[in-house]
Each structure stands twice: as C-alpha cells, then as structure tokens.
C-alpha cells in the first residue's frame, strides 16, 4: 500500500517504514482471502452434490397409486391359496395356488374360472412365468417345471429342471426376463446356494438361463434389507418390535415399459423397484387393508399392474392398478 501526502506531491522515499510494514500485511490479507474463498467453494460444491443426490432420488416417479385400484376381484374358492399370477390376455389372468399343480384361467370380465389344467401332482408351487407357448412353475424347493403347449390338454408336455436351490432358500418368486432370456427366481430365505455362501442381511434373485437350462452360480441381484426401512408409511407393519426390518420376497416381475424389476414381499408388506444395476429406486409399505397377504404380481403389456392376495381364512383377491 502506498501513502500519499496531500500537501507534498513529491514522491516518497523507498526506505519509508510504512511501506515496509504494509507489504507483509497485504500478503497476509490476500492469504486469508484465498483461504476464505476456498472454504466457500468447498461448501458450495458439497451442497451442490447433496442437492443433486436428493434430486436424483426425488425425481423418480412411481407410476401407480396403490391406495386406489381400478378393479378389485373376489376370487373363487379354488384360488383362496393363490400364490402366483401371469397376464395371459386382456380378459384372462392365469393363477396358481400353492397346494396343487394346476393352472387356473380366470376371466376378469366374467369374474370366474373358465379353464383348469392339471400339469403336476400336488406340490408347494409358488409362482409361474409365461415364455412363449410354455408355462414355467416354481416349487419352493427350487424345482422348475416347464409345461409346453399348456393351453392344449392333448399336446401338453411336462419337463422338470432340478436347480441347486433347496427348501432352505424357500423359492417364492418367478418371472421371465426377455432382456437376458432367463427366469428370475426370488428367494424368501437363505441367499446362498450353500450355507457357507449365505450373506446375512440380504435377499437374493437368481437367474436361470433358458438357453443352457442352468442356474447362475451367484445371485443376479442382492437386496440389502437394511436399506428398506420405510418410516413414512405403516412403520408398525414394516418392522418387528426389536426394530429389525422385515422383507421376504413373495413375487417378482419385470415392468414391460420401464424394464425395471418389481419385488413384492408378503412378509414385511412391501413393494420395491430395482433398476438394472440392482439399485433400489423406489420402496413403499403396503396397507394391510388392501394387501392382507400379497403373493403374486404381473403386468399387462400396457403397464397395468396386477397384485393378488392369498385369502387365508377369507377370500383371495386380485387388484388392478392402471398407470398414472
């Protein structure tokens, strides 16, 4: 900093003490200013990252209102123990129940079963998946049954595929993934094929390759249960008294438009949505009034969502939700 004398315009001498003191003071101020600006930029950068992450989370728009169904169907006695469904055509949902190896064609216009096809002896069948002219059925011990030409009793043939999965895994959900030409199998319990491979705190989805008819050695997707706490909806139904989060998949389906993976859980009453990277992009609790025991999930090609509830001591139900 230079000092000027208003009454004496002559240049100051270079050995004046004020200048000798002013120079280090100026450097100190610049250093303080530089540090302050750096801290401010760091804070702004952190805020921007946090905001971006929040926006990325809040940007997801779940396309259904699960508190209002477009249609509700009271299912007949044969489907009280309904455990899985697939969309067949605009008038028909095919269901299976967990006590008999039979396919039930339910007409949503006439609100009744129009066909019943037996493909296997009694067994704990949990879900079904439609692939071309074949219907695949999943038993809780990991057995896959392929019913070729399932709409024709005369030409119907049955094939069995034994997977390494077992009752310890409690296989519950099944769907067809056309992207990989495979079946997704959602497990309710142990996520490893062997006990030594089990990873506590996770639920697994395995992939069954339809070209090679083999199961993936490792899960295609692992879902971390601790990330599924849902405090904003029905907290008493999403946790045990101990605070442990409950999430045991009962069904899985691929959205026909977004290609996202929907996982339904009867134990824990939840529905979550995964993207193809396995990230949970949406999670919600399900109200027991509408979803007393959600066991099956399916989509129409236009995106209408169907969820079925096992009846228990009451009546099984089928709900339809249209996209917003």
Fold and architecture overview:
The protein has a single domain, classed as TolB, C-terminal domain (Neuraminidase). Strand 20 and strand 21 (317-321) form a beta hairpin. The strands form five sheets. Strands 10, 11, 12, 13 and 14 form a five-stranded antiparallel beta sheet that branches. It has a four-stranded antiparallel beta sheet with strand order 1-21-20-19, with no helix packed on it. Residues 1-23, 42-58 and 235-241 have low confidence and may be disordered. The protein is built from two helices and 21 strands. Helices cover 14% and strands 39% of the residues. The chain has 324 residues and is mainly beta.
- The residue ranges in which pLDDT falls below 50 over 5 or more consecutive positions are 1-23, 42-58, 235-241
CATH architecture: 6 Propeller
Q: Encode the helix/strand succession as letters.
A: HEEEEEEEEEEEEEEHEEEEEEE
The proportion of residues in beta strands is 35-45%
State mean pLDDT (0 to 100 scale): 85
* Helix content range: 10-25%
Q: CATH class, please?
A: Mainly Beta
Radius of gyration: 30 Å
Summarize the main sheet. Answer: 5 strands, antiparallel
Q: Indicate the structural class.
A: mainly beta
- The general outline is globular
Count every beta strand, where a strand is a DSSP E run of 2 or more residues: 21
Count of domain modules: 1
> What is the CA–CA distance across the termini?
68 Å
CATH superfamily: TolB, C-terminal domain
């Amino acid at each position: 900093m230079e000092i000027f004398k208003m009454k004496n315009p002559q240049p100051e001498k270079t050995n004046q003490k004020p200048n000798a003191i002013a120079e280090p003071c100026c450097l100190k101020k610049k250093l303080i200013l530089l540090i302050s600006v750096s801290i401010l930029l760091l804070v702004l950068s952190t805020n921007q990252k946090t905001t971006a992450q929040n926006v990325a989370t809040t940007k997801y728009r779940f396309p259904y209102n699960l508190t209002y169904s477009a249609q509700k169907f009271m299912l007949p006695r044969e489907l009280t123990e309904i455990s899985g469904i697939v969309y067949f055509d605009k008038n028909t949902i095919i269901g299976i129940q967990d006590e008999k190896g039979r396919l039930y064609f339910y007409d949503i216009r006439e609100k009744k079963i129009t066909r019943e096809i037996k493909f296997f002896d009694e067994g704990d069948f949990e879900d079904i998946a439609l692939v071309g002219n074949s219907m695949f059925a999943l038993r809780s011990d990991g057995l896959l049954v392929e019913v070729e030409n399932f709409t024709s009793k005369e030409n119907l043939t049955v094939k069995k595929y034994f997977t390494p999965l077992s009752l310890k895994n409690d296989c519950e959900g099944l769907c067809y993934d056309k992207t990989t030409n495979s079946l997704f199998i959602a497990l309710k319990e142990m996520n490893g094929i062997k006990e030594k491979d089990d990873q506590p705190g996770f639920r697994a989805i395995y992939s069954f390759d339809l070209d090679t008819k083999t199961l993936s050695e490792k899960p295609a997707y692992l879902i971390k249960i601790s990330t599924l706490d849902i405090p904003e909806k029905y907290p008493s139904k999403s946790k045990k008294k101990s605070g442990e989060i409950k999430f045991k998949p009962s069904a899985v389906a691929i959205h026909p438009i977004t290609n996202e993976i929907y996982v339904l859980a009867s134990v824990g009453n939840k529905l979550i949505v995964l993207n193809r990277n396995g990230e949970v992009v949406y999670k919600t609790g399900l109200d027991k009034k509408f979803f007393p025991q959600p066991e099956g999930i399916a989509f129409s090609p236009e995106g209408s969502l169907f969820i079925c509830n096992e009846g228990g001591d009451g009546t099984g139900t089928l709900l339809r939700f249209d996209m917003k």
